[in-house]
Specification:
The chain has about 300 residues and is α/β, with parallel strands linked by helices. About 30% of the residues lie in helices and about 15% in strands. Strand 6, helix 5 and strand 7 form a beta-alpha-beta unit. Bound molecules: NADP nicotinamide-adenine-dinucleotide phosphate and glyoxylic acid.
């Protein structure tokens, strides 16, 4: 019988325990402080697992992130590197991210927060109406989610560009591609809104910093749906103060939950959401995890296996 351990320092994993039992009745699912005989565990499903815990599972066959990102697992210096590491890739997750990013672009570009305020006070007042075609949205990170968001934004009329590590041959219609460090400045110079959808790796840590902000058009809007550690928080506050950036919509933070005393909460130019840009259905997580193990049992590389050396 397959044995799954659910490991997290921050999340109640009970919702996943029931999902695994629904997908595979009779499966052995373990969680909490007492995981029983550790040499019986085949799969570890993780969200910020306690550091060192995966290394204590001698027969582990699959380390599975319950999310798209794997930074929360790679942060464990004792992560067993010989065990396949997989992440979730899911059309439902991409649809959720499309909706969030499209909302975040539109709410700022069309001045929707001003309408919420004027509607509350009974004030008939127009905000500037600028055609989406004249508003350039740049997406840093053109992977599964970046590509989907680029396609969605182009479909509703925005002038979309994307930046990735490697050149892309399969960009959505109307989207302009940039790649590599050599094309970063050219990419940034045309981002009225910049969306960060990069994975967090040693290379992208602190990517959203003062130097990068200085290369954006004056008054740009920043949307961070990557990770909190992509952003140098003090640099963002300075860029807003100087008008280099006009607004920021942030969904991920270095410390989550964002502490009540954090200056982001009180800054009217910053819109905070609590890491909810998208979620994956719990049954999809259970199904993909078990499909990954089945692939490994057949000697096939699981489709969503991560390159541990590359970090994503
Ligand atoms: P992905 O498919 O692995 O795509 C990553 C993209 O980033 C790829 O296009 C990759 O370039 C590019 N990239 C990586 N390192 C780079 C570098 N140094 N320079 C330039 N480009 C680089 O990832 P995904 O599934 O789209 O997810 C992206 C991230 O979104 C996740 O890692 C996670 O942190 C975040 N996320 C957040 C939420 C939320 O609710 N806020 C939800 C899901 C995911 P190549 O294509 O050339 O490899
Ligand atoms: C969420 O943040 C994810 O990486 O899926």
């Amino acid at each position: 019988m397959t044995c799954v351990a659910l490991l997290s320092e921050v999340l109640d994993m009970e919702y996943l325990a029931t999902a695994f039992r629904e997908v595979s009745p009779g499966i052995d699912v373990r969680q909490g402080a007492d995981l029983g005989a550790l040499d019986e565990i085949d799969i570890a499903v993780c969200w910020f697992p306690p550091h060192g815990q995966l290394a204590q599972l001698p027969k582990l066959r699959l380390a599975q992130s319950l999310a798209a990102g794997v930074d929360h697992m790679l942060a464990d210096a004792q992560l067993p590197r010989d065990v396949p590491l997989c992440r979730i890739v899911d059309s439902g997750m991409a649809a959720g991210m499309n909706a969030y990013v499209s909302w975040a672009v539109v709410q700022q570009h069309r001045g929707m927060r001003a309408y919420v305020a004027s509607s509350a006070t009974g004030l008939w007042q127009e905000q500037p109406v600028v055609s989406p075609r004249k508003h350039r949205v740049g997406i840093a990170g053109m992977g599964t989610l970046g590509m989907a968001c680029a396609g969605a934004l182009a479909t509703i009329g925005y002038a979309v560009r994307g930046w990735s590590r490697s050149a892309k041959a399969d960009l959505p219609e109307g989207v302009t591609g940039y790649h590599g460090a050599g094309q970063l400045d050219a990419f940034l110079s045309g981002c009225d809104t910049l969306v960060c959808l990069l994975p967090l790796t040693p290379e992208t840590h602190g990517f959203l910093n003062a130097d990068l902000f200085s290369k954006l058009p004056h008054g740009a809007h920043l949307i961070n749906v990557g990770r909190g550690d992509h952003l140098v928080e003090a640099d963002l506050l300075r860029a807003l103060e100087r008008g280099q950036l006009s607004a920021a919509t942030l969904d991920a933070f270095s410390q989550e939950p964002l502490p009540a005393s954090h200056p982001f909460w009180k800054d009217p130019r910053i819109l905070v959401t609590p890491h909810i840009a998208t979620r994956t259905d719990r049954l999809v997580i259970a199904q993909q995890t078990l499909a990954n193990l089945a692939a490994l049992e057949q000697g096939i590389c699981p489709v969503n296996q991560v390159d541990i050396d590359r970090g994503y």
